[in-house]
Amino acid sequence: MLVGIGLAFGPGIVVGVIPKLLNFAAPGAITTGIAVLTVPAMPAFYIYAIYQRYLGELEFRANRAMGLYGFTLLYATAFVLVSLVGYRWLRLPEKLMLFSLAVSTLFVIAAPPLRDRFQLLVDRLAYGIRHNPRAFS
Hints:
The chain has 5 helices and no strands. Helix 1 runs antiparallel to helix 2 (28-38), helix 1 (2-21) packs parallel to helix 4 (59-89) and helix 2 runs antiparallel to helix 4 (59-89). Helix content is 79%, strand content 0%. The chain is elongated, with a radius of gyration of 17 Å. It has one domain (2-136). It is mainly alpha-helical. The protein has helices spanning 2-21, 28-38, 41-51, 59-89, 93-127.
């Protein structure tokens, strides 16, 4: 439940607070978009917590779906923060395209191994489950 609350409000708060701490304004559309995408996390985690024992064989798939949703929210937040800080740091337009390409490539390459580690962490912390997420593919 606490993980769901953290995932529901954390990314929106982080995207709203960190740019202000670094003395630049984040684009309003990006901040609003991340905040809107994270709002369904709280009711989804509440519903999952209530009906967890009734899922039966679907429980592991529901765990993976919730983990994937949480990872996507956190990964998108990290991507936006890295991009915003990089755009602020590189003010020359010709360097922005190369920076965007490099950051996007790095995030795409890093996503699969980080997702598996995140899933193991979520299963261990939030659900008390110790299994290999690839075993139920």
